[in-house]
Specification:
It is a single chain. The chain is built from six helices and seven strands, in the order αβαααβββββαβα. By secondary structure, it is α+β, with helices and mostly antiparallel strands. It has two domains: 39 residues; 160 residues. Strands 1, 2, 3, 4, 5, 6 and 7 form a seven-stranded mixed sheet that branches. The longest helix has 37 residues. About 7% of the residues have low confidence.
Length: 210
């Protein structure tokens, strides 16, 4: 019968201590690296004309942005299933789609007046649409604009351009404004509008890794 080697309790405790300490060091190091990378990526992804949907907006503006972000998905779906049509603000009011619906919440969040705005770039291959919501109470909320833009190849394939994650962008202006005859990202930037970037959940990971 072979000899059984018994490790002293003290030695086993020392081994366990070393293993736990090593694991903790690795966890801390990994956390610090991830934190540093997250901060670096965030700074790099936010451009001069962009603001965070979390830190760049407050109060009613955050609520309007959240509703508009969700409504944009419905608008894009409507366009895809009713091509080439787009829903009107009046339709979305009737369908109770916030922030277009003029309900009690709308009354307390600046009473934004929504209208469609020409983009000047629509064609059989380029589909664009803009909705502008002008605040009636600047002290309560700012104004918003959602710009849709996607493309089709000659065979009708749907795609996004410029490495964009989604077919729409949401813009914010804290004070009164004048809009040009047609809307584009370039003209919005020139007029001082800020693109609101979402940094929540899945969208945050996409933005930080782009």
């Amino acid at each position: 019968m072979g000899k059984v080697q018994v490790v002293p309790l003290r030695q086993r405790g020392e081994i366990l201590f070393v293993m736990v300490s090593t694991a903790l060091i690795l966890l801390v190091a990994a956390g610090l690296i991830a934190l540093k990378k997250g901060k670096t990526d965030t700074n790099r992804s936010l451009k001069g004309y962009q603001i965070s949907g979390i830190t760049g907006l407050t109060g009613n503006n955050q609520g309007i942005f959240t509703d508009l972000y969700t409504a944009a998905l419905d608008i894009e779906y409507y366009h895809q299933t009713n091509h080439p049509g787009w829903p009107t603000p009046e339709q979305m009011d009737i369908d109770k789609i916030s922030p277009f619906v003029q309900d009690q919440l709308w009354q307390t969040r600046g009473r934004l007046v929504w209208r469609e705005q020409p983009t000047g770039t629509a064609s059989t291959l380029v589909h664009t649409k803009a909705y502008v919501g002008k605040t009636a109470q600047e002290s309560v909320a700012g104004s918003f604009l959602v710009l849709f833009e996607h493309y089709h190849s000659s065979d009708g394939t749907y795609y996004l351009a410029g490495g964009k994650e989604r077919p729409y962008s949401i813009w914010f202006k804290a004070d009164n404004f004048d809009l040009p005859a047609t809307i584009s990202e370039g003209t919005l930037i020139q007029l001082g509008w800020k693109e609101v970037v979402s940094y929540t959940g899945k969208d945050q990971r996409k933005e930080l890794n782009r």
